[in-house]
Amino acid sequence: MTHRLFALLVASFSVLASLPSSAQGLRPSLGLSSVPVARTQPVVQQAADYIVAVVNSEPVTNSEVQREVQRLVQQLAQQRRALPDRKELARQVLENLINQKVQLQSASESGVKVDEAAVDLAVQNIARQNQMEVTELQRRIAEDGMMFSQFRNQLRDQLILTRLREREVEPRVRISDLEVDQFLRDQQSNTDPANTEINLAQILVSVPDAATAEQIAALKGKAQKAFERAHGGDDFVALVNEYSDAADRANGGQLGLRTADRYPPLFLEATQNLDVGAVSAVVRSGAGFHILKLVERRNTSLPPMTVTQSRARHILLRVGPQLSETAARDKLAEFKKRIVAGQADFAALARDNSQDGSAAQGGDLGWANPGMYVPEFEDVMGRLAPGQISDPLVSRFGVHLIQLQERRNSTLSLREQREAVRAVLREKKLDESYVNWAQDLRGRAYVEMREPPQ
Fold first, then answer.
1. 297 with 196: CB under 8 angstroms?
2. Residue 79: its pLDDT value, please?
3. Left, alpha or beta for 56 (phi > 0: left; psi -120 to 50: alpha)?
4. CA-to-CA distance for 359 and 159, rounded, in angstroms?
5. Which residues contact 171 (CB under 8 A, 6 or more apart)?
6. Which residue among 143, 294, 322, 398 is least crowded, i.e. fewest CB within 10 A of its CB?
7. Are residues 225 and 137 in the same domain?
């Protein structure tokens, strides 16, 4: 995707677990995600322009369509993907531009606005996600023949559209407990191997092609001994190193997590009734005798049931008339300097200065599952080592100083698993609701298509 950023990605919803009340301000909402910056060639403007469509009295020009077509063609070329028919691409681009104008007009009529601070934050996030300063982003945009004001206007439009969709579509989506129950029942009865991923580990006692009956019997006895030891609780990895002739011994015999239909039917039959961690009886293939251990099994239609949780604390300073962003950054940078030097305590500074509900707990946010915080906060937290303190960072809520306290792998509770399923269903229903809403909005708009001048 080029840095013209005509279509910005939307951050996913995450409700794996409810946030503590002290951290509600960091809950993510539908917003901008990172968009990679790629170099493109400047778009050549056409000498003559004309109107190709009128949307509620607002024109769509041929130059708008051709600029977007050119951008998409360059993007596909960079990705080494086949180029579609240019006329069909232009038709689809025109439809997208019409839909966007319809939605922007609806946003204007209903009073949806985005202030300059929100656009500034979006620019900062895009620069940060692409590992560059805002000044470098501005330079790259200018080199590609785009005015920075035009770039900001496109960002503003996308922010407006995001807020409009949040307001108009999100309230329509509710997932009941009955829907969650039905989804879980459907997945439990789903036996399609393509929807199941498993990881098997094996001990292979190979049998040469020209082996005699006596040799085969001896090798089978060797495999049976390995099975008895594995079944008796001996370490499977140690048994792999001792008995296996397979090339995957260095990986503990693991064959890797893959969909079940990518395993030999013989392996699936031998392990289909095993619990995770259990070992199959000895099975024979053309390669020899196998003992198989079911390392992992997961339904790809379900969200992961094990996650890496993070526990962090933070100090939040809110930006406003009394405190500029620069002043907030400087203040938090000084806090970090004092903490690292051992001259101050993070929790004490949080209690005295943080403007978040977590201040009373010394800034402690508790254990958090992935996706519980807004992306700009979580991205920085995810790069910290336990005990490490971040530099001051800007989010949509203010300026933060984060300290990661610890991480752990955790199996989601039954309630959290149900909330994870609810999030999956909600995301699917959001997509469906958005399509229906957009179609309804388009259907109520006046759209006049114009033929090109002769």
1. yes
2. 81
3. left
4. 30
5. none
6. 322
7. no
pLDDT score for 34: 39
What CATH number is attached to the domain comprising 250?
A: 3.10.50.40
162 burial type by CB count under 10 A (0-12 exposed, 13-18 middle, 19+ buried): buried
Q: What is the distance between the alpha carbons of residues 156 and 168, in angstroms, rounded to a whole number? A: 18
The reported pLDDT for the residue numbered 189 is 66
Which of the two residues, 75 and 27, has the higher pLDDT score? 75
Please enumerate in sequence order all residues whose Cβ is within 8 A of that of 234, keeping only pairs 6 or more positions apart, or say none: none
Q: Which helix or strand (DSSP H or E) is residue 90 part of?
A: helix 86-109
* pLDDT confidence band for 11 (50 / 70 / 90): very low
> Which contacts of 190-194 are long-range, i.e. CB under 8 A and separated by 24 or more positions?
190/299, 190/301, 193/259, 193/260, 193/261, 193/268, 194/259, 194/260, 194/261
- Which is nearest to 96 in space by CA: 142, 157, 35? 157
Neighbours of 251 (CB within 10 A): 13
Beta sheet of 398-411, edge-to-edge order: 364-368, 306-317, 398-411, 393-395
Q: Is the dihedral of CA 318, 323, 325, 329 positive or negative?
A: negative
Question: Pick from 246, 272, 299: which residue ends a domain?
Answer: 299
In a domain, 416, yes or no: no
- What are the angstrom distances between the C-alpha of 373 and each of 30, 53, 305, 310, 396? 12, 42, 19, 11, 11
Q: What is the 3-state secondary structure (H, E, C) of 231-286?
A: HCCCCHHHHHHHHCCCHHHHHCCECCCEEHHHCCHHHHHHHCCCCCCCECCCEECC
Backbone angles phi, psi at 95, to 5 degrees: -60, -45
The domain in which residue 124 lies consists of 21-176+433-449
The domain tally of the chain equals: 3
Computed on alpha carbons and rounded to an integer, the radius of gyration of the chain in Å comes to: 29
